[in-house]
Design a protein that fits this description.
Number of helices: 20
Helix content: 40-55%
Strand order of the largest sheet: 5-4-3-6-7-8
Mean pLDDT: 87
Distance between the termini: 42 Å
Length: 525
């Protein structure tokens, strides 16, 4: 860490030396030039009074001649000293202003402030590496929940947005390479108050480096990283990454569930959405002929899901795809009516637009809807800033890259138990999922519910009291689901709380939707 004080001294060395020489010469001149006291006797000024006089005269303040009126020789010398001092101070102040505008010095100041802020953080915090669309969305949600975070990003213009964001607390931020282990350590990775690290930069190799550093420095720390291909995902998993988010794989899985198990897909959407949002409508994908415009990784993942359901799919892409049958592929951008008609858009039931550019997606969407207004349209939205345009076109389902990754990350951050529960939902049947969805709708007034985890261990004072001080009656799940107020032995109030126990973990065994009479033991979650 650079020492700002010595850095300033080094950069201002010449102006400081110049001022010292001016003061030294001025003081020495006053001491050596003889004066006359009030009795007309010669005298010489001492160093203290000479320095005192030069100190206020050099800054052009002026408190008069001390201790006696000066002679002409002294006044001539003081006149020269005044001009020298003005020149010296002008040079010094100009150098200070130039230093304040120096980019290297500004970065050093920002770096020092960042290090000090991280050291002073007294509450648990997340280290977020990457402040793109996903990072901004995550920071906004965490800030609403009063959870602290530290932000790092390689691009300085993104980091400057953190300073302008209207967060409830002054979040530490720094522009730097998150693949640097030393920088991650300085950013708080090695601190005990750091409860998780998120590698969500646009470079998956940087995310891999974050996963490795996290594993080496803090093996027990929650780590969430984003990847784009399976090889990197497997590499991250080998370093103990708790949650690996592959957006394209997540979207493909979402489509597979929506096609085969719409009730389970709907329940997962509710539990993965942001708390307080309206409960999303169930998305039921029609079966029949589909047209996919844009065959990147997003389009491939959806194509795989559609193909497994027995749906016929025609692909449109500006790049040749030799592995696809010629009768099911059309080489075009897909924004004109001719290419869409060649793909069978007139008798299609669904359309997926998944180009990397939103303008192409919106153009293809508008053209296709003109030809076939009954289409079920799935649109990929790349930039969150284009939400007004997509809302105007009203596709049936919009997949926003940043929200997909943010949902997956928040689910892992909020509770590992919730993440485990959501994964086990797929093993249940549609009736079970539908019944739980209706319970949540009724309980939470059509809003996405809050969720939390209770761990009955030594850190939970209530659990210690229940198991040791008052072991009888035995602790049951119902005790956490009722609001009981007592005054002595008199029961003042006993009412059910608006909550559902989704899962109970005992000795590594998970029970979904446990009964309220279920007995609880020390160590349960």
């Amino acid at each position: 860490m650079p020492n700002i004080f010595f850095l300033m001294l080094r950069r201002l060395r010449t102006p400081i030396i110049t001022l010292i020489l001016i003061y030294a010469i001025s003081v020495m001149g006053l001491v050596m030039i003889p004066g006359v006291d009030d009795q007309g006797q010669p005298y010489r000024m001492d160093f203290f009074h000479a320095f005192y006089f030069i100190s206020y005269t050099a800054t052009t303040i002026g408190f008069g001649e001390i201790p006696y009126p000066f002679t002409n020789a002294q006044r001539m010398w003081v006149l020269a000293c005044i001009y020298l001092a003005v020149i010296g101070w002008t040079y010094a102040l100009g150098s200070i202003f130039a230093l304040s505008r120096d980019q290297a010095f500004a970065k050093a100041m920002q770096y020092t402030r960042f290090v000090n802020k991280v050291k002073r953080m007294s509450e648990p915090f997340y280290l977020i590496c990457g402040y793109g669309q996903t990072g901004r969305l995550l920071c906004q949600v965490l800030d609403e929940q009063n959870i602290r975070f530290v932000v790092m990003d390689l691009r300085e213009e993104r980091i400057n947005e953190v300073a302008l964001a209207n967060y409830h607390f002054d979040a530490p931020y720094h522009a730097g390479d998150a693949s640097n282990p030393e920088l991650l350590k300085i950013a708080g990775l090695a601190q005990s108050r750091c409860i998780g690290v998120l590698g969500i930069t646009g470079d998956e190799n940087t995310n891999l480096a974050i996963a490795i550093t996290s594993y080496v420095l803090r093996p027990e720390l929650l780590s969430i990283c984003r990847s784009k291909n399976q090889a990197v995902s497997d590499n991250m998993a080998s370093f103990g990454t708790n949650k690996i988010i592959n957006m394209f794989e997540a979207v493909g899985q979402q489509f597979r569930l929506a096609l085969h198990e719409p009730a389970i897909s709907h329940l997962k959407m509710i539990l993965s959405d942001f708390t307080g949002n309206p409960i999303p409508d169930n998305i039921i994908l029609p079966k029949g002929h589909w047209v996919i415009v844009g065959y990147g990784r997003f389009g491939r993942s959806v194509h795989a899901a559609l193909a497994r359901s027995g749906t016929t799919v025609h692909i449109i892409d500006p790049e040749p795809q030799p592995h696809l049958p010629a009768e099911l592929f059309h080489l075009s951008l897909g924004v004109d009516a001719a290419s869409l008609k060649a793909a069978g858009i007139e008798h299609a039931v669904g359309l997926l637009v998944s180009h990397d550019h939103d303008a192409n997606n919106l153009s293809a969407l508008a053209t296709a809807r003109t030809i076939n207004p009954k289409l079920f349209i799935v649109a990929r939205q790349n930039l969150a800033t284009n939400h007004l345009l997509f809302e105007a076109f009203k596709p049936d389902f919009t997949s926003i890259r940043s929200e997909v990754v943010a949902h997956e990350a928040l689910r892992a951050m909020a509770s590992p138990l919730l993440s485990s529960f959501v994964n086990q939902i797929e093993q249940q049947d549609a009736a079970w999922a539908q019944a739980l969805t209706e319970r949540i709708r009724h309980l939470c007034d059509q809003q996405v519910p809050e969720n939390w985890t209770i761990t009955l261990d030594a850190n939970n004072i209530s659990a210690v009291h229940a198991f040791l001080a008052r072991p009888y009656p035995a602790l049951q799940l119902v005790h956490f689901q009722r609001n009981v107020l007592k005054l002595g032995d008199i029961l003042e109030e006993d009412q059910a709380l608006r909550c559902i126990a989704l899962m109970h973990r005992h000795a590594g065994e998970d029970v979904l939707l446990p009964d309220k009479e279920r007995a609880l033991n020390f160590g349960d979650e």
